Each structure stands twice: as C-alpha cells, then as structure tokens.
Amino acid sequence: MLSASATGLFIIGITVVLAMPGPTNTLLAAAGLRQGFKPSARLTGAELAGYVLSISIWGRFLGQAAQVLPWLPTVVRVASSLYIAYLAWRMWHAANAVPSAAQQLIGMRTLFVATLLNPKGILFASAIFPTAAFQDLAQYLLSMAIFALLLVPIGLMWVLFGATLGGDRLKWLDPAKMQRGASIVLGLFSVTLAWSVFR
Question: How far apart are CA 103 and CA 105, in angstroms?
Fold first, then answer.
C-alpha cells in the first residue's frame, strides 16, 4: 500500500495532468460548446476507458522492459519531466483559447481514440502511477479507482467550461491569464517529478 505522502503526490499528479489542456480536454470543451453539457457529459466515460487501456498497456510494457533494461524507468521519468516542462513553456507562450466552435459532433469513438493516443497515458504509467500498480491486482484496482474518481469531475469541468463559453457568464474570464497560471502549476509539477528521480 502507498504511504500517505505517496498517495498525496499520486492524487496531485493525476489532478494536475488531467486538468492541463491537451487533445482530450480540448475535445471535451469543444463538445460542451457545440452540443451542450448534458449530451456531452457521457464523453467522460470514453475518456476513462481510453486512459485505463492506455495506462494499463504502457504500465505492463514498462514493467517488463525494466527487467531487461533496469535504467529504462528512470530515463522515461526524466523524459516525462522534460516533456512536462516543455508543455509548461509552450502553454506560457501560447495564448490559444479553447476553439470557439467544433466543426462536427464529437462522439464516444472519437474521444476514446484521442484519449488512447494521448501522450498523457505514458506519462501516467511511467511517472505518476506507482510501480506496484502494475505488479499487484489490489494495488492496480485501488490506483485505478482513485484515478476514475478524479477523472470524472475534471472531465465534466472541461465539458462545463466549453458549454459556458458561448454565454455571458464567462466574459470576465481571461484565457491568457488562466493558461499562464496553469503553466506555472505544470512547471512546478515538472520540478517535483525531476526531484523524485534524483533524490
């Protein structure tokens, strides 16, 4: 079982990565904008299914590969830390808002495939989920349960964000400031991840 501090870091890591803008969150927001909140809320089920499959595959692969290449998990964690730092830098310098309109309806299959191919999957498997989650069924189920409990409300917030963008309720919101704030959080997470590798 994870210690209290390890569980706290696990929860923070999941929350930060799930909340940051990316292909899946952009689709969720665009669906909320185009289709409304209620019809789009079910898309979080496709998001969860895509992440569970992706994380499970990457977690098992990295665990088996580490037996032959014991240095691989450390290298992947360092690469993940650098990737997060790059995302933070890119988010700071880009003022891109969530698309103002979606060209077509976004369905379950589209969101599932986008999430399955989302690079966040390998990040979760290599740097955020505990190694024990891919070695012990009870730890795997517990980790996935925590992940699901965090994913659903965060996904719904992205749908709600998109659904309210077209109205008057968010005219006070400055997307550039929000994005820069998210990039600072992302940068701090990158530093924390790097520190966990070299401590």
Answer: 7
Long-range contacts of 70-77 (CB under 8 A, 24+ apart): 73/126, 73/131, 74/197, 76/122, 76/126, 76/127, 77/126, 77/127, 77/193, 77/196, 77/197
**Those residues with Cβ within 8 angstroms of residue 82's Cβ, 6 or more apart along the chain or in another chain:** 190
Domain that holds residue 92: 4-193
Q: What is the pLDDT of residues 44-101, one digit of tens each?
A: 999 999 999 999 998 988 778 877 888 877 787 787 778 767 767 776 776 454 444 4
Distance of CA 47 to the CA centre of its chain: 10
118 φ/ψ sector (left φ>0, alpha ψ -120 to 50, else beta): beta
The alpha carbon of 157 is separated from its chain's Cα centroid by a whole number of angstroms, namely 13
Contact 59, 125 (CB under 8 A): yes
What pLDDT does residue 176 have? 60
> Taking the model in full, what pTM does it have?
0.73
**Total domains present in the chain:** 1
